[in-house]
């Protein structure tokens, strides 16, 4: 290096070090795992996490539901959708987890019925309008979907929803408050529908609300 260039470089070095020291150091990013990865991991077991039998509210009231095309929203491992298929419904299941839906198909095969499934992110998915005779959504809370359910049902179609309510949050803590139904929330949401069945149930270990409502 020429003497003048070396002298200039030596003069600039402290300034360069000072400038670098002023820059923020890169920090490791530890974001939450994506929902798809989280649920695929949970469902990656031979055991059916929520059992193979449908929820009691569906089992007791399936005879009230109009036969036809049924949509199982957040189907998971398929216990409710497969039950509907066994009772003659044409079932389409939506869920973010391909692993869960794979298990739903396995459950359907054991009962000699067929179901259709689609892997979708429900937070960024629009339901087909005027397309379903029944919409089923259990233990999945996404309030903006309730309005979509209304549009997606055919006239005379029915929606069945069940999930935890605020009594569960206060007494048992199975879920956080933001994912729990408020008092009579389902009744208020579907006040323009005919209420076929409604319950607010407390088993002593969990508390949840359930509704079957019919579109005019």
Structure description:
With 216 residues, the protein is α/β, with parallel strands linked by helices. The protein has helices at residues 3-22, 35-43, 56-61, 79-86, 98-110, 144-152, 166-171, 185-189, and strands at 69-73, 90-95, 116-119, 132-138, 153-164, 194-202, 207-214. Helix 2 (35-43) runs parallel beside helix 5 (98-110) and helix 4 (79-86) runs parallel beside helix 5. The termini are far apart. The model is unreliable at 1-33 (pLDDT under 50).
Topology:
Elements lengths: L2 H20 L12 H9 L12 H6 L7 E5 L5 H8 L3 E6 L2 H13 L5 E4 L12 E7 L5 H9 E12 L1 H6 L13 H5 L4 E9 L4 E8 L2
Parallel strand pairs: 1-2, 1-4, 2-3, 4-5
Antiparallel strand pairs: 5-7, 6-7
Helix pairs in contact: 2-5, 4-5
Report the span from N to C terminus. 88 Å
| Strand order, sheet with most strands | 3-2-1-4-5-7-6
CA-based shape: globular
CATH architecture annotation:
3-Layer(aba) Sandwich
Instruction: Provide the CATH topology.
Output: Rossmann fold
Residue runs with pLDDT of under 50 for 5 or more positions: 1-33
Largest sheet: 7 strands, mixed
For the secondary structure, the number of strands is: 7
CATH class: Alpha Beta
- Share of helix among residues? 25-40%
Mean pLDDT: 87
In short:
With 216 residues, the chain is α/β, with parallel strands linked by helices.
Keywords:
216 residues; alpha/beta; Rossmann fold; 7-stranded mixed beta sheet; globular
